[in-house]
## 1
Amino acid sequence: MLLSFAQWIQATDFFTYLRGSGYVYPCILSMHMVTLAVFGGMILMTDLRMLGWAMSSRPVADVVDQLRMTKRWGLALMATLGVLLACCKAEEYYFNIFFRLKLLLLALIIVHALVFRRTVYAQAAEMDRAGRVPGNAKLAAALSLLLWVGVACMGRGIGYIDPPFGIHAQLWPL
Amino acid sequence: MQIDNPLNASPLAFPILECIHIVGFAVSIGTIAIVDFRLLGIGMRRETPSQILHDTSLWTLGGLVVMLFSGLLLFSSDPDNYYLNYAFDLKMVFFLLAILFHYTVHRKVAQRDSPHGKAVACISLALWTLVVFGGIFIGFLNSTLDIHHI
């Protein structure tokens, strides 16, 4: 059912046009990478601040709280562009192991947010008052770093549908 | 003269280097963007631009070094092809402009909280955006768009 949805959506006029558009498709991909650089970089810096490795002369709350809205808008833009890209080649991506792993990691990121939002990310000011970052906050930051770097790497992997790996569509036959 | 590049021995080397390249530019461009957004009045407004610049500059430099070295290794896998690729040439031009701008005008303006901050932030973001576009188009010029010069 998911596969027939994928086949239907990529066959719509809009996505057929985008796929064959020459310049428009690479421009969308480029903007997806620009948002990755700008807002992905902000996510990494927030995590690194929590771990005490970057921007340590700034309060944790200044970094976590003030970048929150910027990252949120950036993430919305990045996700929108990503959905456009995925719909262009939905059928191929359905079979693509890297695309599946990327979705899995994104699902884990949602779980991460549900688990740590209240206990860690809403407590930044508390950490500054106490003068130390608790262990669970450092764990949250380290996991976030790994998950986001993983998402970026899986995203790059999607492009390798054909060789060098040649595992596309072989691990999950119809 | 043909030299065997060990990077071409393993099919995994290129994609892994690309991932390192991506993390490198996410850190460098991301930290520069935090300063740019502040100059535009978005994000870390409780800090001055010069405080943010001071706190992120080491990470910016680290990201740039990682990006540059992984980029050189990627280039070394097939230099002829890159040399002939129009998008690669443009990317290098924009990259040099972006680096030059970052360590001259951008740095000065961020350090002195000058009134030209917004214009400088826009130029900085535009230059780095063009570098990323150049990188993506390298792959598309080779395969689909087919408009090599020569």
Note: The helical segments of chain B are 13-39, 49-76, 79-83, 86-112, 117-145.
## 2
Amino acid sequence: MQTQCFTSLKLNTMDAIRECVEKCTLPSISHIIGFSSISHDAKEIQICLKEILPNASFHISSSCLGTMTHEGVKKGDVISLMFFEGKEASFGISIAQKDRGIRNIAKEVIKNSIKSIDRAGETPSAIWITCSPGAEEKILEGITSAIGSNVPVVGGSSGDNEINGKWFQVTNEAYLNEGLAVTSFFSENVISASFHCGYNPSTYKGVITKSSGRTVYEIDNRPAALVYNEWSGNRFADFLGAYNTILSESGLFPLGRKAGEFADIPYYKLSHPESVDETNKITFFTDIEEGEEVVLMEGDVEELIKRSGKAINSAMKVSELEPNEITGCLMTFCAGCMLTLDFRMDEAFAEISQYLPSHIPLLAGFTFGEQGQLVEGENAHGNLMFSVILFSNKRI
Amino acid sequence: MTALKKNDVQDILFDLHRMQKKEEILKRECHTLFVASKVLNSSMDFNKVIQNLIHVLNNELECTESFILMNQPGSDTFHTIVSTDEKLKNLVFKLSDNFERVLEKHPLISHDIREITEWQDVLNEEIDSIRSALHIPLVGNSLRAILVCTHHEIGFFSKSHQRIANSLTPVARQAIINLENQTRLLEEIELRKHTEQVLKNLQNTLVTTAYKEGFAEHAISVLHNIGNLVTPLKARNDLISKDQSLEECISFCQNFSHKMDTLTDEKKNQAIQILIGKLNEFSEKLDKHQKITTDIVNKIADTISAQQKFANLKNTVKAEIKVIDLFNEVIHTFTDIISKLGISVEIDIDPMVEIYIERNSAYHTFLNLISNAVDSIQERKLSDRNYSPSIQINCSQDQEAVHLEVKDNGIGLDPQLAEEVFKYGYTTKEKGSGFGLHSCGNFIRANNGDIKLISEGPDTGASLQITLFRGGAKNE
């Protein structure tokens, strides 16, 4: 499965897409996966791609503030497209509006994507998913109910610049603001995935005693924000008792929920605190259920920088891929981490380049939630994580 | 030296654990492949191999049930030929794109068989519990089959299963080709065995037929040779029966007895002297008859004895024989008939010429030649009583061969038929058997010789020319 990835900073969508396409030297383009800043209009992206590449399928998602490719981090008005050659691979796409009964919608979307290339019933090698933030857990449940839990589901929740719902998902079929889009990959070569976080558990832990969806009211029967503030060394004292966004400040202190154990070491799905309010409840980017044990996770910038590269390295180790066997890499990079790293994102990119030579096409979007395959093989949704999928020319 | 951070230690532990898990998976995959390969190469019996294969894989892959579907060339359906569960043995699948792709050696993992076209046509209560399936091609040179491992859970089969399927596909293909070759080889061996048996039977039939033919030919040869001897015996018998000497003696005695009283002693003495003379003459004739008859009877006895030896498959003994002796003997046998027909016999044989041959058979061969010449003369005489019959026998030799010729001026033969006379059953005589010259030809050719008959046409006589080549015969 050969890939190439190009970025354009042109403001005009048609010009930007044309620039990327013109740079592409693949013998043919069967499928495109892309990330775009919200400066490009979803409808316009669909029109342009259909016009320029009428025979290719595409799956584009918005990304927070910019994108990252093997050429580096590009912020601002940007669109990055990864082109896939169809030789020895197939790509099925589908998109749907998120609505009530999202579990069944996800189930249908995944089936439709497989059916779209006449492979109904056949298990894909991997799934690439992008959706608007919210209900990602149910989406994963829906996908699992359709195809089982053995297929890596990798992707991210579409980002925007100000968390104000300007995110989008685009495919040949539709452009949506609150949608769910998937690409089903079929390949006879190895596709490898990994899902990583750059945080360690602290000694602070408690049980969720009152919650609803993504809102946690109480931990250990006390207002959640008060407990969280105590655990984090009073870092959030100024935000308590009123509505405040704490997304940036909480970037190094997410809550972790034990997802499993590997080598007798627990590993965690992360939940990123978004805001507090006058009642001292906290809203997150993941669902947290009553009865779940949460632990305060601790991170630092140095570790985040290193972790981004290690996520790639981990995906290589999972399938024993050598750099020369890798033909492309898709990544969802938590927007929260990106914001935390800020001007040190170049160091994170350098870390990634250490494992993934710069000639290998890389496309990463900055997302508001990541989906990926955890170390024991289960698919999960988390925050402040790095999710990676590697394509290769190595036969299974 | 910088100390390892907690995350680094965790990474190392993760890597170690990952490697351990990978090792376990690889071991399991290797074991599955090993046992599957072992089964594939365990027997030359295809049915046994596939029966074992599905059971082994079913266990190794922890499947619910497994079965094998077979597609006959030219057919668009697949039938179950073997399964781990009886209720799956009558499944019929229609060939469509998915199975076509599997047959092109691409294993297919289905997370939900209800979405697969081929399965949709066969959905019934028998397969109600099946949800996911792994389809492994079993394709040889002529075999088109798919091994289907199933499970009751959606999406049960994973990358690990796909790796096993991918690895097993070429192994299975090679094993199947080997099986096909072995089967074809066995079939060929069976066919050859059968052909060999048919040939053996044919050979036996041929031997039996040849034996019967040989036996018949032998019997005919015996009868013919005896027949040849009976002819002069019969001629001799005719002579005896037609001889008036004894009747004359009896009549003389009767007259003598009537006139006894009237005859003088002198006359009586004269009469007795005459009677004694007649009786002596008759006695001499009888002696001669007896001698000739004894000779012929002895020849018949010799012939029978020789044939008995031949019948016992004992080699008859060859010896250097003077040609002049053989012909004198033969002519002696025919003395009466030659005399009766007034045949002039001229023999021009170098007394030194010898041939290395089995005596009895050579005698009968030459007897045949003279017998034919006599018969030919006798037949011509029927229409031309005034002609002077003759038989000429010539024999000469050179460095290469002994040349013999028996020439008569009998009935002769159409020159175009000269070759035919040596074929079995061919005869120009009214009561001929068609065996005599055929037998002569066989004998001469068997003794490194050549025989031909030359005639210019009817009533011009015939010449039988024999060449017996030297060399080799003594060394046989």
Note: Residues 245 and 282 of chain B are 6 Å apart (CA to CA).
